[in-house]
Amino acid sequence: MTQDRQTDTISESSSERDSLMHLLGGRASAVDASVPPVAFGLGWLLAGKSIAIGGLVAVTVGALIGLWRLYRGARPLAVLVSLLGVMLGAVIALRTGYAADFFLVRLVTNAASALAWMVSIAVRWPLLGVIVGTLLGQRTRWRRDPVLLRAYARASWVWVGQYAVRLVVFIPLWAANAVVALSIAQVALTWPLVAACVAVSWWVLRAVLPDDHPGMRRPRVE
């Protein structure tokens, strides 16, 4: 009986971890974030360091990925935002004549994201809880569970760390105009880093929640 209960607990925990990965974007978002920058870096390098060719290749690849995601049932707004980010990066690089500026949008969004997550924790509206609670249809019920609120706040710091890691790596490479290195770093710090972030934040959630807590899908509201 005890062994069966432990097995059920492990199975439920794994299901919650997988659900967290699915809710927070999964592999599709990683493809959106990493493939166009790699295409830019390759196009720029193979075309004799032409920013125009690199930007054209990146936008074309981004559009193809967008069409593929729409075919797979992705939300049009999410696809459009991803494509606009690629186009904006290409336009900025063309205007400044500095190839690394293609990645400037990503630097700004990572800095803004880190700040937003820290502010959300400070005001007791941790973004991890806001995102997961909204996607699970809980509205604000998760905030009426003090233990779950505390767990989301602590786990949200893991996401702050994710953005900080990217900035620590990206900023020196951007300053050095290291386009190829930035393209490689974009891949290394997208899906692998997101997967690690989800795993660690899930572990933090489980560590903070007591054994008798029903989990993130069932807030304990008094």
Automatic annotation (TrEMBL):
Q: Which organism is it from?
A: Haloactinomyces albus
Concerning InterPro entries, the annotation shows:
UCP010219 (IPR016566)
The membrane-spanning stretches of this chain are: 51-70, 77-94, 114-136, 157-176, 188-209
* Keyword set, alphabetical order: Membrane, Transmembrane, Transmembrane helix
Q: Which domain of life is it from?
A: Bacteria
The protein in question is named: DUF3159 domain-containing protein
| UniProt key word Lipid metabolism | no
Which Pfam families does the entry link to? Answer: DUF3159
